Amino acid sequence: MASGVSADDRGSAQANANDTNLASPPLAEDSSGGSAGARSQTASEAFLEEITQSVSASIYEGRYENGRRYHAYREGAYPLPEDEREQDRLDLIQHWFGLVLKGELYRAPLKFEHDELSSETPRRVLDVGTGTGLWALDFADAHPEAQVIGTDLSVIQPEWTAPNCHFIIDDAESDWVFTDRESFDYVHVRYLYPGIADWARLWQQSFEHLRPGGWAESQEISAWFYSDEPGFEHSNIQYWQETMDDATSRIGKRFNRAHEQKEHMIKAGFVNVTQEIIQIPMGTWDKQNLEVGKCALLNAFEGLAPTSLAIFSRVLDWDMPQIETLLAAVRNEFLYCKWKTHVKFYFTYGQKPADD
To answer: What are the Polar residues biased-composition ranges (predicted)?
Structure first.
């Protein structure tokens, strides 16, 4: 184990959830012999409005832990925070993807005929786990002929959007809220590895909600730092990611699963499945990829704490000094390029058979 972290820093813990109970609505009394129904409906509507406002407020307020704000809807399902600092990081990640993709929004062979709509032009697009909504907004702006829907557990999207883009609260791991008549032409999933336990089910639901001939795409980052340099196996970076891999495996949401997406899509029934892997340097050691390397380094600096806090404290029972000591050691190795490391971007896309 590298310097700065002792073996005594390990432990175990479990998160607790709180139950919320709602009272029954009040009943209106009939004292005039003819308007009880109207008054009962009015009272019920008032009660429902009160409940709606209460639930909405709780969703927006979130839950605070270790100095960070976490989502309130389906509390604990997503282990990273949703506060303003994390939203800025998510926006940085969108910029990072844009650099890697050289400005493109997708890799699937979608066909757009801007002069006139064809039968193959995507008209309905779903962005699962939309986050701050930047990808959905960019897609809607680039393709005004398409209706774009973004779903997420957190209500952190802008209130004002393009007329062909809107957002709804939904849990990607539960049954999706869309009916059989609301099929999509393209389903997009980006940077969702912290929140998914059952990837096979996610791609099965994507398959079921696609029209025949439609496409689904996964854009994920390997939750693992690679290096061929001697001694890296004893680094703080390696110790951190092995500890994270162990902790997330314990709760059934192992982070490092980007490489599995192709297999899951094939098993779900997709055809023409393609996977593209792009290797990105961490930091400025690769002079030919300075911009993407800088974004990678900045994301590591900003992402280490939100990625680690809840998981290390809830699952491993680490206290803040233990967590901060390790994170400081990891940041130091990244900052001074002690190890030439890189991450991998996985772009995986597949098509629902046209005759399905």
So the answer is: 13-23
Domain ranges of the chain: 59-224+257-278+342-351
Looking at the domain 59-224+257-278+342-351, which fold is it? Rossmann fold (3.40.50)
Q: Smallest Cα–Cα separation from 134: which of 92, 104, 164, 99? A: 92
User: Is residue 135 within a helix (H) or strand (E), and if so which, with residue range?
Assistant: helix 134-142
Q: Return all residues near 219 (Cβ < 8 A) that are at least 6 apart.
A: 97, 107, 188, 189, 190, 191, 345, 346, 347
What are the pLDDT digits (tens) for 216-253? 999 999 989 999 999 999 999 999 999 999 999 998 88
Contact 63, 82 (CB under 8 A): no
Nearest CA to 135 out of 219, 42, 38 is that of 219
E-assigned strand segments in the chain: 63-65, 68-70, 124-128, 147-152, 165-169, 184-190, 210-221, 271-281, 342-351
- Write down the pLDDT at residue 106: 97
Cα maximum dimension of the chain: 88
CA dist list (Å): 24 to 35, 55, 73, 241, 329: 22, 15, 22, 48, 54
**Given pLDDT bands bounded at 50, 70 and 90, which one contains residue 21?**
very low
E strands, 13-163, in order: 63-65, 68-70, 124-128, 147-152
CA torsion angle 211 190 347 97 (round to 10): 130
β-bridge mates for residue 102, sequence order = none
Tell me how far apart the alpha carbons of residues 184 and 176 are, in angstroms, rounded to a whole number.
12
Q: What's the pTM?
A: 0.78
State which amino acid sits at residue 317: D
Q: Taking the CB of residue 204, how many other CB atoms lie within 10 A of it?
A: 16
Give tens-digit pLDDT for 282-294. Answer: 998 999 999 999 9
Alpha helices in 163-276 (DSSP H): 199-208, 236-250, 261-268
Q: Pull the structure tokens for residue 116.
A: 């006139």
Average pLDDT over residues 35-57: 49
| Beta-sheet strands, E only, within 61-154 | 63-65, 68-70, 124-128, 147-152
